[in-house]
Write a structure and sequence with these properties.
The chain has 310 residues and is of the alpha/beta class. The protein has 2 domains: 181 residues, FAD/NAD(P)-binding domain, CATH 3.50.50.60; 105 residues, FAD/NAD(P)-binding domain. 23% of the residues lie in helices and 28% in strands.
Length: 310
């Protein structure tokens, strides 16, 4: 048989990748986990997680991520900081290409590269990213102490982070294009109960204004057509996510119109021996709990696949 370096190679170190590593390592398979930034994924940008089972008082995102990493490493998973630039399927093994050209061969691959915030696309967003426009409240919230800021979006993340930002900001405008939020009722109740938050329904941002940094936004009411300006020094954008799949060759794996990877119930892609788990795949709910479940299933399916290859 041809040479291979690892039984299982996992791309991505969020909850899905970490759980897949835990299960693969525990199954005594030689496992490598590759993460280009820091392990934990989007959990690392979450101040407080209150819907993960086993933590009745909630848990800090950083702590939960670190516990997952410690557990995976306890079962022998090798975790390496490296950026993956390509996947080359083969028969029987698959090759992962790293930045710089290094190639690593695995008998099975689990893609858990996750997702990232989607850009809204209004004028000024790209220009002022990092200069008042942000996508991570826990990363940047403390920069806006006693200032007035805006949050754009209506899902769970927008609602949670609007409340979180009131720890620092004097006032938070919560701007949503529809007439009601999509986020969970619990988060909606917290928003409406917070007197630092002013909700603007049926409203869109038409432009972000500023000099070196953000100084304000132009908004438009979709029902009345009225346009106005708000003086803000920060804008946090939460309008959905997009999969981190740009490193995959176009057409290599079956994906939906948004780029999320299609899998079956066992996390298998259209190529034997390649699996996907977590936020990167097509699914109804993207939460830490579902990512963990995906990771466990993907690792178990990979184990069954490897056993059948002997």
């Amino acid at each position: 048989m041809p040479h291979y370096d690892y039984d299982v190679i996992i791309v991505g170190g969020g909850p899905a990748g970490m759980t897949a590593g835990l299960y693969a390592g525990r199954g005594r398979f030689k496992t490598l986990l590759l993460e280009k930034l820091i392990t934990g994924g989007q959990v690392m940008t979450t101040d407080h997680v209150d819907n993960y089972p086993g933590f009745p008082e909630g848990v800090a995102g950083f702590e939960l991520s670190q516990r997952m990493r410690d557990q995976a490493e306890r079962f022998g998973v090798e975790i390496r900081s490296a950026e993956v630039t390509a996947l080359k399927p083969g028969n029987p093994y698959h090759t992962i290409v790293l930045e710089g050209g290094e190639e690593i061969i695995g008998r099975a691959v689990i893609i858990a590269s996750g997702a990232q915030p989607r850009r809204a696309g209004f004028p000024g967003e790209a220009e002022f990213t990092g200069k008042g426009v942000g996508y991570c409240a826990t990363c940047d919230g403390a920069l806006y102490r006693d200032e007035t800021i805006a949050v754009v979006g209506g899902g769970d993340t927008a609602l949670q982070d609007a409340v979180f930002l009131t720890r620092f900001a004097q006032k938070v405008y919560l701007i949503h294009r529809r007439d009601q939020f999509r986020g969970a009722r619990l988060y909606q109740e917290k928003v409406f109960a917070n007197d630092k938050i002013q909700v603007l329904f049926d409203t869109v941002v038409t432009r972000i204004m500023g000099d070196k940094n953000v100084t304000g936004i132009q908004i438009k009411n979709l029902k009345t057509g009225q346009e106005s300006e708000l003086a803000v020094t920060g804008v946090f954008v939460f309008v959905g996510i997009q999969p981190i799949t740009g490193w995959l060759s176009p057409g290599l794996l079956e994906q939906d119109e948004f780029g999320f990877i299609r899998t079956d119930a066992n996390m298998a892609t259209n190529i034997p021996g390649i699996f996907a788990a977590g936020d990167v795949r097509v699914k109804l709910l993207r939460q830490i709990t579902t990512a963990v479940g995906d990771g466990a299933v993907a690792a178990f399916a990979a184990e069954k696949y490897l056993e059948e290859q002997h």
